[in-house]
Structures are given as C-alpha cells and as structure tokens.
Amino acid sequence: MSVESIQAGKQLPNIAPEIKNHENRPSKPRQPELTAILVAVTAIFAIFLVIPMVIVLAKSFQTGDGAATMSNYAAILARPEFLTSVLNSLKVAAAAALVAMLLAFLLAYAVNCTNLPPKFKKAIALLTQVPMLLPTITYGFAIIYSFGKEGLITKLFGHQLFDIYGFNGLLIGYVIYTLPTCFLLINNSFQFVDKKFIIVSHIMGDSHLKTFFVTTVRPLIGTMCVAFIQSFFLSFTDYGIPTSVGGTYDVLAMTLFNQMLGSIPNFNRGAVIAVFMLIPSIISIILMTILERYSIRYSKVSQIDLPEGKKRDLFCAIASVVVLVCVLSVFAVILLIPFVEMWPFKLNFTLSHITGVFADSELTAVFTNSLYVAVMTAILGCLFAYAAALVTSRSKLPAAAKRFVDSISSIINTVPGMVLGIAFLFTFSGTPMQNTFWILIIANMIHYFATPYQMMKDSLSKMNASWETTAKLMGDSWFKTIVRVVTPNAWPTVLQVFGYYFVNAMVTISAVVFLTGAKTQVITTKISALQHLAKFDDIFTLSLLILVTNLVVKGLIALATRKKPIKAKATEAAAATVKQGARKSAEQIAAGSFALPPINPRSHGRNVVTGIASGVVAAILVAFGFGAFSGTAAASQQVVIYTNADDEAVAAFEHALDNNGYKGKYIMQSFGTSELGGKMLAEGRSLEADMLTMSSYYVDSAEQRNHMFSDLTDVKSKLLGTNENTKAPKYRSPTTAQEGAIFYNTEAIKQAGVPVPTSFKDLADPKYKGLISVPDMEGSSTGWLMVQAIVGAYGTGDEGKQILTDIYKNAGPHLEQSGSGPLKSVRSGEVAVGFGLRHQAAADKKKGLPIDYVDPTEGNYSLTESVAVLDKGAKTNPMAQKMAGVIIDQGRKELLETYPTPLYQGEQEPANGSKYPKTFDKPLTVDLLQQHQDFSEACKRAAKEG
Predict the structure, then answer these.
(1) What is the pTM of this model?
(2) CA 301, CA 862: separation in Å to the nearest integer?
(3) For residue 628, what pLDDT is reported?
(4) Are 144 and 193 in contact (CB under 8 A)?
(5) What family does this belong to (predicted)?
(6) Which of 565, 573, 4 is nearest to 302 (CA)?
(7) Domain tally for the chain?
(8) Does residue 452 contact residue 382 with C-beta atoms inside 8 Å?
C-alpha cells in the first residue's frame, strides 16, 4: 500500500480480526486530551460570556428600585421608533452583507482560480484587508471627508456624487467594514478546494457556467453563507459608522448606544435592546447547522495548473482593481489630512501633527499599551480558537459538545461589543480584574472569537480526517501528531488568525471603552475622547499610526507565510513518519498479525497529570499577571483623576495642582462624557478614580444611585454665589460652565446666500433647510442647551414645539448624536450653520479658521461641570480632597479665560463673556432632562412625519 493511500484515509486491506473486533466494540474511542480542552473552553465561555450575559439579561428586568418587572420591555416596545430602527437595521445589514460577500468571493476567486501574476494576487489579498487595519470610529469621518460637500473625491469630480447620509452612507461603511472578514473566510476555504475537478469538468464538456457553479461555488456555498452571516451581524451591531453618517436613518445599534451612552444612560432599558439583538442568534444557530450539510471535505487537495482563460483573467483583474480602488479611495484622506495644516482651509504641507503625536508622552504610553494588548490578544486568541476548532473538527466527541461550541460562536456574532463591555463592567467591577490589561485582552478574545474559530475550523476540517488515527497506529501520541502534522499544515491559517486578532485588538473600541483605567488606556479610547473634543486632525493622525502599525504586522505575516520554513520541515517529518508506518503496517499485514498497539494506562495517566499541571501553571501565571499588569496607581499613592473636561480645562487643573506642590502626585485621565458617565453609574465606589471632574447632573445621578462621593464642605474655601443655577450639594463643587452658541462657516454661508442667524427662531426658517446641524439631546447633553433656550423663551406649547420641529426638519440628516458633531459638519463645509459649545467655536475662530459665532437672543444657557471626591472608606486617598480644594481655589482664574461664566461670589464676567447668559428657572436635574428629552422626541417625530 502506498503512502498516498494512507494519507488519503483509504481502508487497509485484509485487516486482522483483532482490528475488526476492536472496531466493533460499542464504546467510543477515548480522547482525554480533547475532553480536557472541551472542559477548558466551556469554562472560559461560562465565566467570560455566559455569566456576564446572564447578568445583562437580569438587568433588563430590573427597575430603578431593584424590582423585577417587564416594565423596561413595555417601555421599549411602546416607542414607535424602535420597530423602525429594527427594520432599518435588518435591511441595511442584509444589503451590506450580500454586497460584501459577493465582492469578497470575486476577489478570492481572482486570487485562487485565475492565472494572474502571483504578485498581483498577493497585492489583491493584502489590499483587501486594509480596511480592517483601521478603527471603525474613523470610517464615518473618512466617508464625510471623501464624499461630502467639501470632500476630497467630491473636489476631484467637481460635484457631490451622492448623498452620504442615511442608507447610502451606512451601506458604504458596512461593506468596507465587513469585506475583509468575508474575504478571509472565503479565501481560506478556497485553499481547500480541489481544482482538479475544474479540469475534469472541462474534459467532460461542461459549459463554463456549469463548471463554475459545480466545481467552485458548490464547495464554497457553506462558507459563503457563513461569511454572509458574519457580515450581517458585524453590520447589525456596529454603532461607530451610524454615529457619523447614519443621519435620520435610525438603526438598532444607535438606539442601544443612546440608551447606554446617551444624555440619560439607562442600562436596564439598554439591556432590553441587547436582548432583542441576541434573538437573531437563534436563527443563526439553525442556519449554521443546516450549512454543515453543504460542507465538502476532500481527502486530498491537488495542486495543478488551471486551464487558460484570458477573458476570465482579464475580467477578474479589472473587476478586482475597480473594487479595491473604490474601497481604498475612501481612506485616501487619512493619508492626506495628517500632513495638511488644516483641511480644507489651510492646505499647506506640515509635519506638526505627526511630530505632535510622538512628542506627547501620554500618547506614547497609550500606544505602548495598545501594542501590548494586541500582541497578548493575538497569542492567547490563537490558542483559544485553535483549541475550540480541534474539538469540533478533529475529534470524535459527542455531537452535542461540538454543537455547543458552534452555537457559542454564532451567539458571539450577535453580541455587540458595547454590550459585552457593559457586561464585563457589571461582572468584574470590584474584582482583581478591574482596570487591568487582562480584562481588555479577554474581552477582545471573546468579542472576536467567531471569525478566527471559523477560519481554524474550516482549515482543520478540510484536512485528511485519518491523520490522527494513522499516527496512533504508529504509536505517536495525540499531542505529537497535532504539533508535528496538523499544526504545520494549518500554519498559514494560524498566522492569519494571529493577524486578525492583532489588528482587531488595535482598532476596537466598543468592547473596551468601559474597561480601561488610568494606566490601561488604549489608542482607540483616546480617539474617542478626541472626537468629543472635536480634534479631528489628531484623530486622522492617530488612525494613520494604527494603519502603519497594522500594515507592518500584516506584512510580516505575509512574508512568513510565503517562506513557510516550518511547514516544509514538518511536512518532511510527517511524510517520514507515515512512510515508516506504512512499511511496518505492510509487514504486519503480510504476516497476518496486524493489531493496534496496546493502550498504556500509565501513558494516559501522565497525559492527564501533565494537562492538570499545565493548567495550574497557567493559573499561577494569570494570577501573577493580574498583579503585575493591573495598571492601577494604588501602589504609588498617586491620586487618580478622571475627567471629561476639554484640553483647556485639563491644562488649568494641572497648572493649579503643579503650582501648589502636587506635581507628580496625580494621574489625570480623560474620557468622553458618555464613557465616564457609564463607568460612574456602573462601577460606583469601585471606580478606580479618587477624584473626578464631570457634568454636574451626571455626578448627581451617580450619587443618587450609588452614594459614592465624600462631603466637600470642609475643603470649600468659597461659597457659591447667585450666578450658579442652584446651590451645589455638599459632595460636589462647580469647576466650569459650558455655554451654547450658534456658529457658522463664513465661507459656506456666503456660498449659501443666507444671512447669519441670530436666534433659534431664525434657524427654524425654511431658508436654512439643509444648511444647519444641531445635536440630538437624546445622544448628547449639549443638545439640552438648545432645548432649554427654546423652552425658556417659547414654552413647550404650540410655539415652542413648532420652532424645535422646524429646526429638526431643517437639520435633516445633520441631527448629530455627538455634541461636537455640528462643529465637525460646519468645519468640513457639510453645512453652513450649527449649534454647539461656545468655547469650541471661539477656539476655532482664534486659530484662524473661517468659523465665527453669535450668541442667540433667546439666551446662552449653560451646564456646569463639577469636581467630586470618591468615598472609598478606609481606602480613600487623603490627598484627593486637598487637590479638589486647590482646583476650586486656584484654577478658576485660568478657567474663566475659556469658560467666561462666573460661578462664585466675587467673580467678574470677562470681556469675552456671552451676551445673553441665562439660567433655567428650574434646577437642572435628571428628571427635568427627561421631560425635555420627551419634548424633543415628540418634535423629532413630528419633523419626520412632516
């Protein structure tokens, strides 16, 4: 018998009775190694997925007083926009998944089934994966800066090609986002399609179309459907792209985002939406089970030359180039803007943005953190996905066990990263994992498990199923077979999985935004903070840094895959083993005494003991890692300060502290308002921070829910004056007041031919339709400033409702979920007029941008931000209250230069103060915010219906 026959898994002739009797035994083969792996995989899923999601499910039934009712479900289902967002999500996600899957198949076909030059094929494979090297939070910005009214591609064509907001923008973003994942899945399966059947089909006289469907599409139909499902759920659960280009096209992910990270976070109702987003997982599990029937396994894959097809090759080459140009052109601005002084107003070449990144020590530390998290995620993720795939594709364990792992993989696809992050936050707050790198690494491993697992499973299942059996007959252990035979043949896929985990860990934000601490910040969470500060030049610069890093890693992986030094040696060793075994088997068959080698109980015992010992060692290492990489500042006794403040306020805080003897005694960590608010409400006294500065109503909400702040009465050296909206409670003291104003692009408003508006009533005029951008107060508290002014001047009756409704009509798709969104749109020339924070517009004007602002005649209403100290009992840092007093006493003078609203007795309004400062006639509480939000929602519905 030949080696090829044994490799192909053919039945040995003249098998001795001993083997027949052995095969006829009712008991199944014992596989202790795979059983141990299954137990470990199950335990990891139970701890880091099942338990956290059960907690989220429990939260969906809880009310504010802790009771378990269906009121949250009733409240969500009663909202008319909920069903609309569900249908919209289904439509755009399905359309994007179909397009992405078809484009990925085209590109993979060009790589695997044509006679195009090898370097051209490699270029296609590498360039297709470029989008996954960038964080999705920048996708929307890239689309706007490319196809918007003042976008790069728009300028090249001389006019805007299409409307980028709503369905169109989401479709483009989702297709670009999910194309690399689809390509990796399909391209990986292509490597295990036996191309000799293409030759056979041609010889038999089949038509080109029949040959294509029978020999190429048919073997891949299962993988293509899996790619569709993967793409669908990636699109269905993404919120980064809708944030920028979703417009008025509501999708479920944004509804979830607003519930969990909006101006009034409601984790319980957010958990309800998360549960609804998990429902499709049941359908996906059924589909995955059905698709298994269409999987084709070849005993051997032939490496042959494909028949000539010049028309086929030309078509695939042109189509591939067109697809890649369309996809990659969107990201051209990322390569351009970091080297431009200020797009699109100052196009002078500069390196200041790049040098500024490397000159920032905080940013350097954040980048180092990202690299560490990405590398560890890739290493551990590879091992985890490989282990799970071995259970389902290379074992004879019960079918139920295999279905369990497949089902978990399907469920993970449907769990939004934001929900997983919140679930980890609820589950691990107060544990040793809180604020460690390990919680970030594990969150990434779980979040991105599905695609690496499917890649490994496809690779392992396509291999000859008899390798382990043959090796066992030769006396080799299971572990040795996996290391010497299976792994070398799966090595290209292992490297691809490593790259997939690495780049996704570098670009993710949704799963880790709630989990980072003062010393465990990663680069994407920094980008999120910069978004709230409207620093889009810095965002593109950091995105470029991420792109370069990921390109280097992918390039190294491609180089290692091309050389394949390990695979060649391993294949030779495997061939020698099989050859030697074949000779031995032939001799035994000839002698009529072929029998399985006797089972050595001691050997199996040693394997089990070794596995247990390895697990203990791993546990010790993990425990050590919890302490070594915790990232907290407790050991150094530094005061950890969390803040949502702008750069100007942070600088004032630091100057006050440094000038009063506290330099080096604190760590200042910036967050977006929503992210910090979520951490405050969820973690309570377990929050890493010793002190924080935050929006006052958020502080009040956190104190009401968690009772987490200390009394500041003894450290307040000044009494609140009459200029404060209401007397601040004893646990916080105001630091700044954020005022709203109308701002405009001086160039764009000239081109539009409309006058500069001076009031909110002006913004309701139909002549501003399509020319304004305002924040939605459901997603951003900045929008509350506008609603306060309208309600204060016109009430909530017919007049006030009509004005706000008309403003929403005029804004159309430019009703932004972020407070900095309107300024972004005005800067980029997408609109001429916007409403937002006054000091941000003033800063742009000071920089020389064509931005100016006016104070609305209805009044410049304001929201205060306050300093508060966490009450951690015996663990309370004694320096925190002293530093809070310094910020209040010594920081106000510098703060008034940027935020010119007096808050304390004796303070005088600066020359740059607003013209119409006003305070609302009621205390700014969460209840009032909810009332105004309900008023705003009614106006939004009226605007859509109108």
Answers:
(1) 0.76
(2) 69
(3) 41
(4) no
(5) Belongs to the binding-protein-dependent transport system permease family.
(6) 4
(7) 4
(8) yes
Q: What's the token pair of residue 536?
A: 């889009």
Euclidean distance between CA atoms 169 and 325, whole angstroms: 17
Range of the domain at 660: 639-734+865-913
Q: What CATH number does residue 874 fall under?
A: 3.40.190.10
Quote the Cα angle for 821-824-826, to 5°.
Answer: 110
Answer yes or no: is 219 within a domain. yes
Can you give the three-state secondary structure of 383-411, one letter per residue? HHHHHHHHHHHCCCCCHHHHHHHHHHHHH
Together in a domain, 125 and 210? yes
**Residue 489 clears pLDDT 80, i.e. is over it:** yes
Q: What is the pLDDT of residues 231-278, one digit of tens each?
A: 898 888 887 788 888 888 888 888 887 777 666 777 788 888 888 877
The amino acid present at 622, given as its one-letter code, is V
> What dihedral angle (degrees, nearest 10) is formed by the CA atoms of 208, 213, 215, 216?
110
Give the pLDDT score at 51. Answer: 94
Task: Tell me: do 872 and 856 sit in the same domain.
Answer: no
Identify the three-state secondary structure at position 341.
Answer: strand
Assess if residue 599 is contained within a domain. no
- CATH code of 480's domain: 1.10.3720.10
Domain boundary among 561, 596, 623: 561
Per-residue pLDDT tens digits for 301-331: 556 666 677 888 899 999 999 999 999 999 8
Is 605 a member of any domain?
Answer: no
Owner of token pair 């030049």: 537
Q: pLDDT tens across 902-937, in order?
A: 888 778 777 788 999 988 888 888 788 889 999 998
Same domain, 724 and 777: no
| Half-sphere exposure for 912 (CA within 13 Å, toward CB) | 15
Are residue 718 and residue 768 in the same domain, yes or no? no
Q: Return the SS3 of 867.
A: strand
| Residue 941 shares a structural domain with residue 869 | no
The answer to whether position 649 is within a domain reads yes
Q: Give dist(CA 651, CA 633) in Å, integer.
A: 21
Other beta carbons less than 10 A from residue 560's beta carbon: 15
The crossing angle, in degrees rounded to 10, of helices 118-128 and 167-190 is 130
Nearest by Cα to 761 from 840, 827, 859, 832: 859
